[in-house]
Amino acid sequence: NSTQFVENKFCQVEKVWKTLDRERAPFWCTVLFFTRADDQCFIPPTLVHQSTEATAGLFLYAPGNWVTHATPSGYMDRDGWFKTIHNFTKLCGARPSNPQYLFFDGPDSHWDADALDLMHTNDIYLYFLKARDSEND
Hints:
- This is DDE-1 domain-containing protein.
- The chain has one domain.
- 17% of the residues lie in helices and 25% in strands.
- It contains two helices and seven strands, in the order βββββαβαβ.
- The chain has helices at 78-91, 113-121; strands at 2-5, 17-20, 29-32, 46-50, 67-71, 100-105, 124-129.
- The strands form three sheets. A three-stranded mixed beta sheet has the order 3-4-5, with helices on one face.
- Helix 1 runs parallel beside helix 2 (113-121).
- The longest helix has 14 residues, at 78-91.
- The chain is globular.
- Residues 1-13 have low confidence and may be disordered.
């Protein structure tokens, strides 16, 4: 079973990624997307690969404006979350007259104190959703 993901807005050229739907895939990765209802703000995604270190080959075909990060599990950690929020803060256009509202669930990585402080001082308001309950959010 494979799924194709094609999105021209994320990069300058059309790219296709194949993902396998099975338990024993060759590696695990997490992709975080930011969306906005009025399509007025584009934030490049974050790609987290399963690896003990971020090598050049690991992110070889990832577009240059994506945030890339590696963790042993392939899941987001606090350092990767800070990188993601730092990028979001630079690009979202938040200011006192145009605050941004960010909704996300509550795993440990999202509680990084530096990321929370960065959002707080940059007019980004946080809303934590109930963890492991996405279908009801």
